[in-house]
Automatic annotation (TrEMBL):
One of its GO terms (molecular function) is electron transfer activity. This is Cytochrome c domain-containing protein. The keyword Heme applies. It comes from the Bacteria. InterPro entries: Cyt_c-like_dom, Cyt_c-like_dom_sf, Cyt_c_1A/1B. Residues 20-123 form the Cytochrome c domain. The keyword Iron applies. PANTHER family: CYTOCHROME C. Keywords: Electron transport, Heme, Iron, Metal-binding, Transport. Signal peptide: none annotated. Transmembrane segments: none annotated.
Length: 125
C-alpha cells in the first residue's frame, strides 16, 4: 500500500492461531480503502492497487509512480511477504523511511493479522 500501514513481526505468523480472520480484516482494511483498492484493475486512487499483494514484487505496479522510499524498500526487500506487510502496516515510516504514505500504522497485532488474512484471500489479478 502506498498508503498501507506498518508493524513488528508477530510471534507465530502463519500459524493457525495467528492466521487472522479475513472477515475482520475487511473491516481493518477501512483504514486503507480511501487510498487503496483490492478490486483488480482499479487504479484511480492515491495509492497502488493491493489485489494479490502477498508475494508480489514491491513497487512494481506499472501504472503507479512510487515514492523514492518505496523504490528503496523494493531494492532491499524485493517482494511483499506476510512478515514484511506486518511490519509495514505497524509502522510504515520505520520500514520505508520518508514514505509519502500518510498513515500512522495499525498498533494491534490481531488487527494486522486480520488485515493480512483479508489481503491473502484476494486473488492476484
Amino acid at each position: 500500500m502506498a498508503v498501507l500501514v506498518a508493524c513488528t513481526v508477530f510471534p507465530g505468523a502463519g500459524s493457525p492461531a495467528n492466521a487472522g480472520d479475513p472477515a475482520q480484516g475487511e473491516r481493518v482494511f477501512q483504514y486503507c480503502y480511501s487510498c487503496h483498492s483490492v478490486m483488480p484493475g482499479e487504479t484511480n486512487l492515491q495509492g497502488p492497487n493491493l489485489a494479490g499483494i502477498i508475494g508480489r514484487p514491491i513497487a512494481a505496479q506499472n501504472d503507479f509512480a512510487y515514492s523514492p522510499a518505496m523504490r528503496d524498500l523494493a531494492a532491499r526487500e524485493r517482494v511483499w511477504s506476510e512478515s514484511l506487510l506486518d511490519r509495514f502496516t505497524a509502522q510504515p515510516e520505520a520500514v520505508a523511511p520518508m514514505t509519502s504514505m500518510q498513515f500512522h500504522g495499525v498498533d494491534d497485532p490481531a488487527e494486522r493479522a486480520d488485515l493480512i488474512a483479508y489481503l491473502r484471500a484476494i486473488p492476484r489479478p
